[in-house]
Write a structure and sequence with these properties.
Helices cover about 60% and strands about 10% of the residues. The protein is of the alpha/beta class. The longest helix is centred in the first third of the chain and has 49 residues, at about 110-155. This is Response regulator.
């Protein structure tokens, strides 16, 4: 924070500067002015939190200076230091949001109390401004989400929108009503990316996807990326050009797919319908794009084979027996062999994988959904729009593992308890949600939910609390350097450890150690 001291007497300026312990208030810079004109120039240049102001100055006196502050709308806190106990001067200070009027000769205590009130008042104004900005941002975000939800429900066929309402919605979200292209997209390796690269943060993943789309498309076409659910995305694009639209849109799509792949490692499958003349033709266009997507080949690059696609019924009895016996390794082997048989065929379309998905979901319903308790426990059915065999295999294994586990409540509790015990034994190591999920054979989402149900906290909060508890003990009972202490708790970055510790305790590690030593 900054301060301007305006007084035509140099010894007064120096006296104020030397009298106050500025650092205790977080003030790092002070600027001097011997008249009102200089003071106003410094205010415009440095935006100080506080202005110390004399009333009697050459060229521009205190009253004129404070009037200028008010006219220009500055929220700088004013402390008048003057030898004139005159009402007109006091009134000028109050009109300029002055917080104090101190008569010369002043006392150090009076100055510091005035600075404290000024800083407190400035922080309150700043916090209020931030709250108002955040409130406006939340309202805009809520409005945007509501518009997206309207469009999602319309595209899903859950609501009917009149033609004029639909055109108004397009206008509101920034889309024109002509030269539209509809691309139906499926992220292929989304789950692996979220669990690995994005450490389970779906919001961060979606932000990255949107940000790249914005960077690639903003200078070429107007676009809107809409998510029907976690797998089905619809990209609407519109161009002002009319010549060779098909090649133009295909070029944009390839460029976007390349950017997602190179930047995030994200692979997508997409079907496109080009040249939609009007938003009222949106639903038929989406249906056409979806139909073209169903014909997509999922095993590109594989060698074509004469092998017929394997029958699901041949594996179903084996799966049911393994589930009933709680044989997780057997389940993994059976499903893995089935997926290998699919790969051996060399060709598999999305519509064919969807048939297998429906058959697998029937099995989940028959076994896992036989009671309401199990329905609540199992992570739902497989999405028909999974288009990556590795993800399909992982999701099916997870459902079968859950069905095997829920046949024995004790085994489930023991599994989550094992995660809890593992964290307590290995807190000093690099632990992540994905490594725990892999080690204990849970999906990250399932592990997160069940851990919170049993221990009423998240895994990462539990790990952080444990590390902070150990950190407090080490800071009190040892003289180890902070960097060494952080490393022993699983933090490679000393600065990050210090930020986490301060967030938990309100003090930095150094301050905490000093505070306890002093006590």
């Amino acid at each position: 924070m900054k301060v301007v001291i305006a007084d035509d007497e140099e010894h007064v300026r120096k006296g104020i500067d030397l009298a106050v312990d500025w650092m205790q208030f977080g003030i790092t810079e002070r600027f001097m002015a011997d008249n009102g004109i200089q003071a106003m120039e410094l205010v415009r240049k440095h935006h100080p939190v506080i202005l110390f102001c004399d009333m009697s100055m050459p060229q521009m006196d205190g009253i004129q200076l404070l009037q200028s502050l008010r006219d220009e709308g500055w929220d700088t806190q004013v402390i008048v230091v003057s030898g004139y106990a005159d009402y007109s001067f006091t009134r000028a200070a109050l009109l300029a949001n002055g917080v104090d009027y101190i008569l010369k000769p002043f006392k150090t205590k009076d100055l510091e109390e005035a600075v404290y009130r000024a800083v407190t008042s400035s922080q309150a104004i700043h916090n209020k401004s931030i709250e108002e900005l955040e409130k406006r941002h939340r309202l805009r975000l809520a409005d945007s989400l509501l518009d997206e939800q309207k469009l999602v429900e319309f595209l899903k066929g859950n609501v009917v929108l009149q033609d004029e309402t639909l055109r108004n919605l397009f206008h509101k979200i920034g889309l024109p009503s002509h030269n539209l292209s509809i691309s139906f997209m499926l992220p292929r390796n989304k789950t692996r990316l979220i669990d690995g690269r994005f450490v389970g943060d779906i919001g961060l993943f979606q932000f990255a996807v949107n940000n790249i789309a914005q960077e690639i498309l903003k200078s070429h076409v107007v676009h809107y990326l809409c998510r029907l659910d976690e797998y089905q995305w619809i990209l609407i694009m519109s161009s002002t050009h009319s010549d060779n639209i098909k090649n133009e849109y295909n070029w944009y799509l390839k460029k976007l797919e390349q950017a997602w792949r190179e930047t995030l490692g994200l692979e997508v499958l997409q079907g496109t319908f080009i040249s939609v003349a009007d938003p009222t033709q949106l639903l038929p266009a989406v249906a056409e794009a979806r139909a073209s997507l169903l014909k997509s080949e999922l095993l590109k690059g594989s060698i074509k084979s004469t092998h017929e696609l394997p029958r699901w019924a041949d594996r179903e009895i084996l799966l049911m027996n393994a589930i009933q016996r709680g044989h997780r390794a057997g389940l993994t082997d059976i499903i893995g062999a089935f997926v290998q048989a699919l790969h051996a065929c060399g060709s598999l379309r999305l519509e064919q994988l969807q048939v297998y998905t429906m058959e697998a979901n029937l099995l989940v319903k028959r076994i896992g959904g036989s009671s309401q308790t199990n329905k609540d426990r199992i992570d739902g059915l497989l999405s028909l729009w999974i288009c990556d065999l590795d993800e399909w295999q992982a999701q099916l294994e997870q459902r079968c593992w859950e069905m095997a586990e829920y046949g024995n409540d004790h085994s489930l509790s023991f599994g989550i308890e094992g995660v809890y015990q593992y964290i307590h034994k290995h807190y000093q190591e690099q632990i992540s949600l994905s490594t725990l999920a892999e080690a204990f054979h849970f999906s990250p989402q399932h592990l997160t939910r069940k851990f919170k149900e049993q221990y009423h906290t998240t895994i990462m909060s539990c790990l952080t609390s444990l590390r902070m508890e150990k950190a407090i003990s080490l800071l009190i009972h040892s003289d180890a350097p902070i960097a060494e202490l952080a490393n022993s708790l699983g933090y490679e970055d000393e600065n990050y450890f210090s930020k986490v510790f301060k967030k938990q305790t309100g003090l930095s590690p150094i301050q905490f150690r000093k505070h306890n030593r002093d006590r």
